[in-house]
């Protein structure tokens, strides 16, 4: 359960840097938006798993 919390924090922190790096590499906003949406969905999944295993 602690590992899920840490993974969620890391995911959120890296989201913006990944967004910037992919844009700088591809210069294609469409590709960046698709990757960003997938990463946000993954972060949400991790957050939901955290809530399921660590009730408030």
Topology (elements, then pairings):
Layout: H1 2-26, H2 29-53
Helix pairs in contact: 1-2
Q: What's the domain count?
A: 1
The largest pleated sheet is described as:
none
Unreliable parts: none
Radius of gyration: 13 Å
Describe, in plain words, how this protein is organized in 3D:
Helix 1 runs antiparallel to helix 2 (29-53). The chain contains 2 helices and no strands. The longest helix has 25 residues, at 2-26. The chain has 56 residues and is mostly helical. The chain has one domain (2-53). It has helices at 2-26, 29-53.
Brief write-up:
The protein is mainly alpha-helical and 56 residues long. It has helices at residues 2-26, 29-53.
Key words describing this protein structure:
56 residues; mainly alpha; 89% helix
């Amino acid at each position: 359960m602690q590992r899920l919390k840490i993974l969620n924090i890391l995911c959120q922190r890296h989201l913006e840097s990944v967004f910037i790096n992919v844009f700088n590499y591809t210069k294609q906003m469409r590709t960046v938006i698709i990757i960003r949406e997938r990463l946000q969905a993954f972060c949400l999944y991790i957050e939901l798993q955290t809530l399921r295993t660590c009730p408030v």
